[in-house]
Amino acid sequence: MALDPDLVALLACPSDDHAPLSQQTRDGAPVLVCTYCESVFRIEDGVPVLLLDDAEPGPRGLGNPVSA
Ligand SMILES: [Zn+2]
Q1: What is the pLDDT of residues 1-58, one digit of tens each?
Q2: Deepest in the core among 8, 14, 23, 30, taking most CB within 10 A?
Q3: CA of 26 to the centre of ligand 1 (A)
Q4: Does residue 31 belong to any structural domain of this protein?
Q5: Is residue 41 included in any domain, yes or no?
């Protein structure tokens, strides 16, 4: 179940970057992806799981920019 875009706009990455999140699809399921570190957060039953322990870290880890 996808999230309301207005809700997504209010959410932020729980890592130190606190960057906006973008809703994307992974394996047919909606997920939230950090626009800064590209960490991936699941959405379970319409509730975003914004927990560092449950996140899939981005290519350079949680809170670390992918480029630069
Ligand atoms: Zn992030």
Answers
A1: 789 999 999 999 999 999 999 999 999 999 999 999 999 999 999 999 999 999 999 9
A2: 14
A3: 17
A4: yes
A5: yes
CA–centroid distance, 45 to ligand 1, in Å, is: 22
Looking at the domain assignment, is residue 67 inside a domain? no
The C-alpha atoms of residue 20 and residue 41 are separated, in whole angstroms, by 12
As for how many domains the chain has, the answer is 1
Please report whether residue 37 resides in a domain. Answer: yes
Q: Could you list the residue range(s) of the whole structural domain that residue 45 is in?
A: 5-54
Ligand 1 centroid from CA 1, angstroms:
22
Backbone region of residue 61 per phi and psi (left: phi > 0; alpha: psi in -120 to 50; beta: other values): left
